[in-house]
Design brief:
Blueprint (H helix, E strand, L loop, with lengths): L12 H13 L12 E6 L5 H12 L3 E6 L5 E3 L10 E4 H11 L2 E5 L7 H5 L2 H9 L4 E3 L7 H14 L6 E6 L9 H10 L5 E5 L8 H4 L3 E3 L2 H5 L4 E5 L21 H4 L6 E3 L12 H4 L6 H20 L9
Parallel strand pairs: 1-2, 1-5, 3-4, 5-6, 7-8, 7-10, 8-9, 10-11
Helix pairs in contact: 1-12, 2-12, 3-5, 6-7, 6-12
Bound molecules: phosphoric acid mono(formamide)ester.
Length: about 325
């Protein structure tokens, strides 16, 4: 695997899932695999789960970790051919090339601005790292996709499904802030590669890019969508068509016990962080049918599997 920025970088999803379950059974089975290698983690935005699980995954493989919050330092320039006489002190060309001298994999988190759709969906920061780094790039969530989250989501569904082809419902939920479409885009993309019946439900105006939702059933009636669902994945996102806008904060879209009663004893999923009693009621999060903690636990094994594949057959930079 050269880089990991979407499901399209995974040569064999089934094999990836099996490797992740093997690591989950025995997390330290390859504890010397990446001895002497270093993971660089570059954060343009905050993180709890992604930071801790990826660091844990790297440690399970014997790696060292260097972590940098870019916003604690000077700002980077990503545009080419600019006269850098403003507040940006270093160009990504040097920054990515220099970071590559110290690490064997560069992992990058960069959220969208939610202001300029064209720029966000070009995924400029991630693409510039790919262009100018000389080591593999691992996405820790970009402006469009969150593949490590989606792999963990897939593991969680595979572990908990009771039928060969479960009904999976991705539901929009209210939220006080405008959030990216990233998790929803990525989840749809990964669900396309496995045998599930995917329904996406949201108020009108919250349609995702058809690049990601084209194979899902779109249902504007949330109650109808929940009928016989085996899994309910809740997530807020801001509008794609009216880019970055909050069009609705309708509390009727919150996930409640009454809504979950329509499902096939459905399991509840959310990538976290979640706002209790805004997105979903306490009664659902505190119910044994909530998978949110196991979903977060699976982040380690998703990241461990991806790091393993990125580093397979690679020497440390000090070896000939
Ligand atoms: N789900 C997720 O990516 O969590 P963090 O933002 O805390 O990393």
């Amino acid at each position: 695997m050269k880089n990991f920025t979407s499901i399209h970088d995974a040569p064999n999803v089934e094999q990836l899932v099996q490797q992740a379950f093997d690591f989950k059974k025995n997390p330290l089975s390859q504890s010397n695999f990446a001895k002497g290698k270093t993971l660089g983690m570059i954060f343009f935005n905050p993180s709890l789960r992604t930071r801790m699980s990826t660091q844990k995954a790297a440690q399970n493989l014997g790696m060292n970790i260097i972590s940098l919050n870019v916003n604690d330092g000077w700002q980077l320039e990503f545009e080419d051919e600019v006269i850098m006489n403003g507040n940006k002190a270093e160009h990504i060309k040097e920054a990515a090339a220099v970071m590559s001298q110290f690490v064997d994999v560069l992992a990058v988190r960069s959220f969208p601005t939610l202001v300029d759709r064209e720029k966000d969906y070009a995924d400029l920061i991630l693409q510039k790292f790919i262009q100018h780094a000389s080591v593999p790039i691992l996405s820790l969530e970009s402006a469009i996709l969150h593949p490590l989250q989606s792999l963990a989501d897939l593991l969680t569904i595979q572990e908990n499904k009771k039928t060969k082809r479960p009904k999976v419902v991705l539901t929009w939920t209210p939220h006080p802030k405008a959030l990216p479409q990233v998790v929803a885009n990525s989840f749809c993309e990964w669900m396309d590669f496995v045998d599930v019946d995917l329904t996406v439900t949201h108020p009108e105006g919250y349609e995702l890019s058809s690049d990601f939702s084209k194979n899902a059933t779109i249902e504007y009636d949330q109650n109808k969508a929940f009928e016989n669902a085996d899994f309910v994945y809740a997530k807020n996102w801001s509008s794609f068509n009216y880019y970055g806008k909050i069009l609705s904060q309708d509390e009727n879209w919150k996930v409640t016990s009454e809504k979950m009663a329509l499902t096939n004893e459905g399991k509840f999923m959310h990538c976290l962080p979640v706002r209790r009693n805004v997105v979903v009621d306490d009664s659902i999060l505190d119910n044994p049918n909530s998978l949110v903690i196991e979903q977060a636990n699976n982040r380690t094994f998703a990241a461990q599997t991806v790091l393993f594949n990125l580093l397979k057959n690679k020497k440390t930079r000090y070896e000939k």
